[in-house]
C-alpha cells in the first residue's frame, strides 16, 4: 500500500511514499519470529531511515502524515509507538485513519495524554506551573484516551500505556496515595473484550520510588501490566524483573527509550549525537541481550510481547530492532 505525500507546490504532481527494497534476510528473520512478538519504533517520521524503511529521503512532515503505510511494509515492524498522544489527545477519527493504513495483524502501542499522567500542568518549556487536577483521573482516562483509541483502532490496538511523568520532589515520598489513585483509575476501565482482544493496559513510570509491592498489587487488581521502561532514570532490566515476575503470567510491554550512557538528563545530547538516525552509534549490548532473554521467555510461554525502540537507544531504531530480533532468534535456537 502506498500513500501520497504533500505536493511541493500546487502545480507539481503528488509524490509517493514508497517502502525501501528490503533485504531478503530481513524477510527470513521476520519469518523465524513467533506471531505474538511485535517489534516497532517510537513513531515513524524520520527522513534518516531512507534505504532502511523508506525508498528515498522524504521530508519529515510528509512522513509524519503519510509514511505509516510504507513503515508497516517493513518485515520486522509490526507495531509502532504513537507518542504524539502524550502532548495532545487524538480523536477516534484520527485513530481510525491510522488503522486503515496498516495490515490486519499490525498493533499500535498508544501513549496516554500528559493531562492524565503528569502531576503538574506545564508551560511550553516543560516547567511545572501548578498541580494538575486531571492527574490519574478516571474520567479523563476514559474520555480522552481509552474510548477514542478503542473506537478508532479496534482490533489493531495492542497496548494502552500510561507513562507517568517524573514526580515533583514533594511527591516522591508520598507515592502510596498516588498508587491508590492509580488503582482507582485502572479499576474504572472496562474490559476491552472482543473489540481489542490483544490489547493490554500498561503503566510505565520514571521514578523508581513507584516500584513497591503495593504498586504491583495495584496493577494486578486493575487488570494492567507493568511497561518496562528502559531509561537512564530507571533501574536496569534485572532490577525491574521482580515486578514482571510478580505479574506473571502475562504479556510483555517494553519501551526501550534511551541509552543510559548519556545519563538521566542527556536526551538532547543523544539527539545531537545520533542524528540523522541512520546507523548504530552506541550499541548497548548489555541491555539488548538482557531484553532478548526476557522476550524469549515471554514468547516461549505463548504470551504476546510488544516492544518499541527509540532512536535514542542506540542511534537507529530500525537497526536496533533487527539486532534485537537476531538476539531473540539465537536464544530460541
Number of distinct beta strands: 12
Whole-number total of structural domains = 1
Question: Within the largest sheet, what's the order of strands?
Answer: 3-4-5-8-9-10-11-12
| Proper CATH architecture | Alpha-Beta Barrel
In percent, how helical is the residue content? Answer: 25-40%
Q: Report the mean per-residue pLDDT as an integer.
A: 93
Multimerization state: single chain
Query: Given this structure, which CATH class is correct?
Result: Alpha Beta
Number of helices: 13
**Would you tell me the structural class of the helices and strands?**
alpha/beta
Residue runs with pLDDT of under 50 for 5 or more positions: 1-14
Radius of gyration: 19 Å
Q: Characterize the biggest β-sheet.
A: 8 strands, parallel, barrel
What's the SSE pattern?
Answer: EEHEHHEHEHEEHEHEHEHEHHEHH
**What fold name goes in the CATH topology slot?**
TIM Barrel
Q: What's the end-to-end separation, in Å? A: 34 Å
Shape assignment: globular
**Beta-strand content bin:** 15-25%
CATH H-level superfamily title: Protein of unknown function UPF0759
Amino acid at each position: 500500500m502506498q500513500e501520497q505525500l504533500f505536493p511541493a507546490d500546487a502545480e507539481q504532481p503528488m509524490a509517493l511514499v514508497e517502502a525501501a527494497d528490503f533485504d531478503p534476510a530481513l524477510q527470513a528473520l521476520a519469518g523465524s519470529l513467533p506471531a505474538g512478538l511485535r517489534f516497532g519504533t517510537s513513531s515513524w517520521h524520520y527522513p534518516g531511515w531512507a534505504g532502511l524503511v523508506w525508498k528515498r529521503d522524504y521530508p519529515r512532515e510528509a512522513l509524519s502524515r503519510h509514511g505509516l503505510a510504507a513503515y508497516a511494509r517493513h518485515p520486522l515492524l509490526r507495531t509502532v509507538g504513537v507518542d504524539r498522544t502524550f502532548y495532545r489527545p487524538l480523536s477516534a477519527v484520527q485513530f481510525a485513519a491510522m488503522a486503515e493504513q496498516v495490515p490486519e495483524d499490525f498493533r499500535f502501542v498508544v501513549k496516554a495524554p500528559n493531562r492524565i499522567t503528569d502531576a503538574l500542568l506545564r508551560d511550553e518549556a516543560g516547567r511545572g506551573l501548578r498541580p494538575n487536577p486531571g492527574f490519574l483521573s478516571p474520567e479523563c482516562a476514559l474520555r480522552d484516551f481509552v474510548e477514542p483509541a478503542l473506537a478508532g483502532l479496534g482490533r489493531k490496538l495492542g497496548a494502552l500505556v500510561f507513562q507517568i511523568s517524573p514526580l515533583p520532589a514533594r511527591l516522591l515520598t508520598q507515592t502510596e496515595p498516588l498508587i491508590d489513585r492509580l488503582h482507582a483509575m485502572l479499576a474504572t476501565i472496562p474490559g476491552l473484550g472482543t473489540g481489542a482482544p490483544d490489547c493490554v493496559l500498561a503503566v510505565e513510570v520514571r521514578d523508581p520510588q513507584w516500584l513497591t509491592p503495593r504498586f504491583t498489587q495495584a496493577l494486578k487488581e486493575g487488570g494492567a501490566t507493568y511497561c518496562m521502561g528502559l531509561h537512564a532514570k530507571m533501574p536496569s532490566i534485572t532490577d525491574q524483573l521482580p515486578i514482571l515476575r510478580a505479574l506473571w503470567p502475562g504479556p510483555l510491554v517494553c519501551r526501550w527509550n534511551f541509552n543510559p550512557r548519556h545519563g538521566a538528563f542527556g536526551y538532547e545530547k543523544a539527539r545531537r549525537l545520533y542524528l540523522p538516525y541512520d546507523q548504530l552509534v552506541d550499541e548497548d549490548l548489555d541491555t539488548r541481550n538482557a531484553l532478548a532473554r526476557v522476550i524469549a521467555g515471554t514468547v516461549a510461554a505463548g504470551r504476546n510481547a510488544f516492544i518499541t525502540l527509540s532512536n535514542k537507544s542506540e542511534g537507529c531504531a530500525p537497526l536496533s530492532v533487527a539486532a534485537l530480533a537476531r538476539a531473540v532468534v539465537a536464544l530460541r535456537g
